[in-house]
From TrEMBL:
This is Trichome birefringence-like N-terminal domain-containing protein. The keyword Membrane applies. The chain crosses the membrane at residues 23-41. It holds the Pfam family PMR5N. It is a single-pass membrane protein. InterPro entries: TBL, TBL_C, TBL_N.
Length: 421
């Protein structure tokens, strides 16, 4: 049982606030276990019975579970994707790259290989067993919904849900709810690209880069009033924060991002992004009835090349970057770190409240996949679209990996909670 507690700490080790002396002891204990054999291996000639005992116990108890699944590399995987546009009918046009004639296939033949272990294949039967009787929700923007659509496809190998969205909302484009009757499992998304209250501020209406007002200290009721009933919450946001924004706090205009107004201070996108995450995490923790497990999925980078997104930028690559090719640009790193900081700041409080907060650290792994976006294959050829999509991900595609992570972490979470009994 002790070992199991260890396992979880180590997986989350880098970002779990270890706030009790007991936690520190556990980590030190595990570090010792990990490091001992390493130092022993150096003079393995002198191996003795004591050493092999340590070796054995390490093999059995900690080898698999102490793995940091987010550090690794993409490796060729000839077996290819779990599903296709023909076998899964849930793929929306915008992400249905095969349907709209994407010619290359190599991007479908890679798998994420963590340095320290194997990431198990997605097993729909196992996933559905783990979530039986539960409700899961994606809170955030369309990239979060992208992951939900991937999950629908992955699960469709075993079970098809009923679309019950209309029972809950009239806005069924942005708010979806699916019910897997055979497992009493509900899968939903709550659209809220800022997590906080927002409205259009451009008299000419809404476009991709029109100005909006966001109220940084007021959670968006669209999710805040619904989320309490969910057992699993996947929360993420990003790309909406880069447009022109007017920031409000306490109902007052406090600054903006790229608003170009002389009398309003430009506080940059990071200011809004940070505060919105703070409000979102705090809101979750303050909900009295909320007992769910929260997964914060880190920023999913875009890959526009040859121009900005609105200046003809595109993403035509057909292979992942190698680690050498990849440039971890300042911008992505800043966005990623800003939200991670907020996550770390709230984690301690979450733990004290008895809530499990974990991170799906997908930024760097996706940065390696400039080949995974729809580019101009998210719509019919004759449909006149102004911009290429280098933000969302083709289905099937590298985004399926996020659900492999999710399954891995759900399983680990269950192991740790059952060991507490
Ligand atoms: C110790 O572990 C290594 C790596 O897992 C393995 O190859 C080796 O056979 C083990 N040694 C003993 C004595 O069990
Ligand atoms: C490791 O596992 C093997 C077989 O599963 C078992 O025989 C052995 O006793 C275990 N060792 C430890 C130290 O738990
Ligand atoms: C996230 O994963 C990357 C590798 O993909 C690693 O460099 C980074 O340290 C991780 N961040 C956290 C907070 O664990
Ligand atoms: C799936 O994509 C192929 C091209 O790879 C296309 O021929 C086929 O019509 C598509 N199927 C559906 C259902 O869209
Ligand atoms: C998937 O999971 C189920 C239930 O845990 C298990 O019975 C089955 O063998 C697994 N399938 C594969 C291919 O591993
Ligand atoms: C389905 O799960 C919910 C909890 O999400 C529970 O309240 C309900 O009783 C379950 N229904 C059935 C038929 O098992
Ligand atoms: C800023 O100036 C505009 C006119 O240019 C005015 O409408 C607005 O109320 C001013 N805002 C503040 C905060 O003073």
């Amino acid at each position: 049982m002790k070992v199991r507690a260890n396992e979880v700490l180590i997986l989350n080790g880098k970002y779990t606030a270890i706030n009790t002396p007991k936690g520190i002891v556990l980590v030190l204990f595990t570090l010792l276990l990990v490091m001992l054999p390493l130092s022993l291996m150096r003079n393995s000639n002198e191996s003795s019975p004591t050493i092999s005992t340590i070796n054995n116990s390490l093999e059995n108890s900690t080898e698999v579970k102490q793995c940091n699944i987010f550090t690794g590399k993409w490796v060729p995987y000839p077996e290819g994707p779990y599903y296709s546009n023909d076998t899964c009918h849930w793929i929306i046009n915008e992400e249905n790259c095969m349907k709209f004639g994407r010619p290359d296939r190599e991007f479908l033949h890679w798998r994420w290989k963590p340095d320290e272990c194997e990431l198990p294949l997605f097993n729909a039967t196992q996933f559905l067993q783990l979530v039986k009787g539960k409700k899961m929700v994606f809170v955030g923007d369309s990239v979060g919904k992208n992951q939900m659509q991937s999950l629908l496809c992955l699960l469709s190998q075993v079970s098809e849900p009923e679309d019950i969205s209309l029972k809950y909302t009239s806005d069924v484009t942005y708010f979806k709810r699916y019910y897997y009757a055979d497992h009493n499992f509900t899968l939903a998304n709550l659209w809220s690209p800022y997590f906080v209250k927002a409205s259009d501020a451009d008299p000419n209406g809404h476009t991709f880069d029109s100005i909006m007002r966001i109220y940084l200290d007021e959670a968006d009721e669209a999710w805040a009033s619904e989320v309490e009933d969910f057992d699993i919450v996947m929360i993420s946001a990003g790309h909406w924060f880069f447009r022109p924004l007017l920031y409000y706090e306490n109902g007052q205009l406090v600054g903006c991002n790229k608003c170009g107004k002389e009398n309003v201070t430009d506080l940059s996108y990071l200011y809004g992004y940070k505060k919105a995450f703070r409000t979102a995490f705090q809101t979750l923790i303050d909900l009295k009835r909320f007992k769910g497990v929260t997964y914060f999925r880190t920023f999913s980078p875009a890959h526009f090349e040859n121009g900005d997104w609105n200046k003809g930028g595109n993403c035509v690559r057909t292979k992942p970057y190698t680690k050498e090719e990849m440039k971890l640009d300042e911008f992505v790193l800043e966005v990623y770190l800003t939200a991670v900081e907020e996550f770390k700041a709230i984690e301690k409080e979450a733990t004290q409240r008895g809530l499990q907060f974990s991170m799906l650290n997908t930024t760097e792994i996706m940065l390696l996949r400039p080949d995974g976006h729809p580019n101009n294959f998210g719509h019919a050829r004759d449909e006149n679209k102004k911009y290429n999509d280098c933000v969302h991900w083709c289905l099937p595609g590298p985004v399926d990996t996020w659900n492999e992570f999710l399954l891995y972490m759900l399983e680990l979470g269950q192991t740790s909670s059952s060991s507490k009994l």
